[in-house]
Amino acid sequence: MNDATLDQLAEIRHEIDRIDEAMHLLLMERGAVIDRLVAVKRTSETGSAFRPGREAEMMRRLAARHQGRLPLATAEHLWRTIIATFTHVQAPFTLHVEQGADALAMHDLARFHVGFDVPLSGCSTASRVVEAVGRSTGDLGLVRLDAAPAVAWWETLGGDGPQIMARLPFFSGGEGPIAVPALVVARPLGSAGALETRVWAVSDDGDVELGSEHETLAAVTRNARRARLVATKGDAPPSPGAVLVGGYARA
Ligand SMILES: O=C(O)C(=O)C[C@]1(C(=O)O)C=C[C@@H](O)C=C1
């Protein structure tokens, strides 16, 4: 390399150092703001700092302003890691991850969304994930969205117990690196839940047709009884007797 090229390289690296330092300073400043947030938010009352509606709003804005060389998925992963880390800083929690058929993909999905500060705990089935979340104060669960699972694991959700709080991947265009579909389960979060799409447990003897505005996420038929997990856009239940088991925001 000649002197002019070396000068240019040094200048560019100086620029990178300046940007890195600014980002680091801003992240530390963000940490100080979180200290103030803890005092205002009274997270200890619910045991969880997780606010899925707020996170969805932040992710939408991130995607809207995103451009340039950095892949959107990398920007999403960085911010998910920052947000999950600060969620954990506010109120420590464990993420219980279903380790069934797609154990490796589920592990990737978990780390993509929470980074490495949040501890993971493996569960053999979706039902075990729900049980672990139910026993905890503010833990989260990650269940693989299998369209035809062995059991209707969602039937214990709802009421005062764990509920569905998010659907992943958030940007479901299929271009992201983490393609395994999954649901996030948490204990009730009051108004912090994002119910843009509601999720219902529907049980019938197999002859109830649902309108095309409803999306069947999963279904199990056993002993002439069909159990379905159904997502709806509006507030109304997809059929009489449907039980609300949570909701989520979409990109
Ligand atoms: O806005 C909040 O309530 C926060 O706790 C902050 C924050 C964040 O780090 O931006 C962290 C956790 C929530 O899930 C959403 C956002």
From TrEMBL:
PROSITE patterns: CHORISMATE_MUT_2. Transmembrane segments: none annotated. One of its GO terms (biological process) is chorismate metabolic process. Residues 3-94 form the Chorismate mutase domain. Its EC number is 5.4.99.5. GO terms for molecular function: chorismate mutase activity. It is an enzyme of class 5 (isomerase). This is chorismate mutase. It comes from Hansschlegelia quercus.
